[in-house]
Amino acid sequence: MSLPPEKASELKQLIHQQLSKMDVHGRIREILAETIREELAPDQQHLSTEDLIKALRRRGIIDDVMKELNFVTDSVEQELPSSPKQPICFDRQSTLKKSDGTRMADSTTMLSISDPIHMVLIKTDIFGETTLVASYFLEWRSVLGSENGVTSLTVELMGVGTESKVSVGILNIKLEMYPPLNQTLSQEVVNTQLALERQKTAEKERLFLVYAKQWWREYLQIRPSHNSRLVKIFAQDENGINRPVCSYVKPLRAGRLLDTPRQAARFVNVLGYERAPVIGGGGKQEQWCTLLAFLCRNKGDCEDHANLLCSLLLGYGLEAFVCVGTKAKGVPHAWVMTCGTDGTITFWESLTGHRYIHKPASPDEPPVAEQPKPLYPYRTIGCVFNHQMFLGNCQPSDAVETCVFDLNDESKWKPMSEEAIKSVCAPGATTSLPPFPPLCASTIDASVTSNEIEMQLRLLVSEHRKDLGLTTVWEDQLSYLLSPALASYEFERTTSISAGNEEFQDAIRRAVPDGHTFKGFPIHFVYRNARRAFATCLRSPFCEEIICCRGDQVRLAVRVRVFTYPESACAVWIMFACKYRSVL
To answer: What are the entry keywords (predicted)?
Structure first.
């Protein structure tokens, strides 16, 4: 469980005061001495942590401390204390507060907390590749009506995507309220509350569906050709459930893990790209992942990347939208758009981190000079949306290069009712989706991982050259000189600013003697599998030429630099280099 720094400090102070007040340290010392004297065998003088905890629990000290701590639910928006990297994640927004003798939030208050517990099951193979196995939303409030605040549940986990109707296993769950509630509710009260919520949610979703159908009919009446535009109002999640697309986006703050919108774009870019698997032919499988499932497996389709990037940009206070349309050859695609206060429209490609400024071309007026082709890869656009708005493109042409993004002009963009969207997508509007989880700091040690991959690559290169009958001599100093170039490449990917190349080139000129030739090949990956990276490098004729270099006084170098991002995502830069005496 993670807490904001100010809450963690407040919690530490509260616990310290309570421990001092109850003289817990003194009591622990007494029990420690007593346990060593009475409970351990004469020849066993080592006291383990487990022995101490058991002794404290038998004497009721842990229960006494927990009863004096006050857990108060706060309804304002906070950082979530969940950890998306764990297979099972608790997504309830809760906080610990210091109060003057008040009790823990009572059972009635807790019954009103409708957020489910989102559990995600991930399979990781020996190569570190992850697969999403199951995604389940657990209704936890049955424990409020159980005796002693303890209940056991058995849930059936279903597969995802095309296997959403196939069982993958049974999960036995034990739920316990701790500290115990002073007063439990009857199971009938709990069941009645849950039934009322389901009924209310179903009615909201029914009314929104009726409204969406009416909106679509009106949209088609504007122009019959609108029927072929990519206007996506609903999308299936990993469980095959249709949800309004606006529910996949919410403002998301990265705390201190990401400093700028461009750094956020780089983070989303280094998350792996993988299309939803398809059984048989028939084109692309429909699957938009919930944010937690996307972060847990660290890879997803273009829609998943666009939804996450849009959420992060909204968190930075930008007016951001997800765009749904096509790119070259009519391939469906999703990207992000931001609208500046000065009217500047910027496209963000979530799969590459690239940014493009949109300057619409007028289809009516003949250009004085032939207009340059747009740099962005997008061809058509059908709709844009975020957590509050949904707008369908009703301009005569859906071509991006001629599109005008004046979203307030209803003759160009047909809006959906913001109230209708709010009824099913606002926080607390539905019981089916919990709040977004916070991003988690990386658990990867960049220096250690860089060194490990570099050592593995050296071994792979040496073995490869040995098979070719070549000897391998590594030059550590030359390898070290490659570091600034790798840092410069990553800085340029993040900021679109090139820096540091002059120093790198000067250092290489000094390191390579007269009459010698230097060759270098940088390459970028978003995974940490050295053998897979080496196989990819060998497919490049430039890199193979360096690795298999023949000549006089051949010296080889390789440098690896891992740049870490939240959720243990990383950018891995590798540079192979060689220098040798030129022989005519």
So the answer is: Cytoplasm, Cytoskeleton
Closest to 400 in 3D by CA, of 329, 326, 336: 326
The parts of the chain modelled with pLDDT lower than 50 are: 1, 71-102
Q: Where are the alpha helices (DSSP H) in 45-103?
A: 49-58, 61-68
CB half-sphere exposure, 223, CA atoms < 13 A: 15
Give me the pLDDT at residue 184, please: 80
State the burial class of residue 159 (Cβ atoms within 10 Å of its Cβ: 0-12, 13-18, 19+). buried
pLDDT the model gives residue 522: 94
Compute the chain's Rg from CA coordinates: 29
Looking at residue 99, its pLDDT comes to 37
Distances (CA, A) of 123 to 91, 133, 440, 529: 21, 6, 19, 17
pLDDT at residue number 179: 79
Looking at residue 306, its pLDDT comes to 96
Q: Which residue has tokens 């517990």?
A: 117
Cross-strand partners of 264: none
- Reported as type and span, the H/E element at residue 310 is helix 302-315
Contact status, residue 484 vs residue 507, Cβ threshold 8 Å:
yes
| Residue 8, amino acid | A
Q: Is 81 exposed, middle or buried (0-12, 13-18, 19+ CB in 10 A)?
A: buried
Going by their DSSP bridges, the two strands 150-158 and 130-138 should be labelled as unpaired
Q: Residue 208: what pLDDT? A: 93
Domain ranges of the chain: 5-68, 107-190, 196-360+374-425, 446-581
Give the separation between CA 195 and CA 186, rounded to whole angstroms. Answer: 14
Domain formed by 196-360+374-425, architecture: Roll (3.10)
Strands 390-393 and 71-72: unpaired
Do the domains at 196-360+374-425 and 446-581 have one common CATH topology? no
Are 494 and 266 contacting, i.e. CB atoms less than 8 angstroms apart? Answer: yes
pLDDT, residue 126, reads 82
DSSP β-bridge partners for residue 578: 519, 556
CA distance 574 to 485: 10
**Per-residue pLDDT, 148:** 79
What token pair was written down for 492? Answer: 């340029």
134: Cβ–Cβ under 8 A, 6 or more apart, which residues? 119, 120, 121, 157, 158, 159, 160, 168, 169
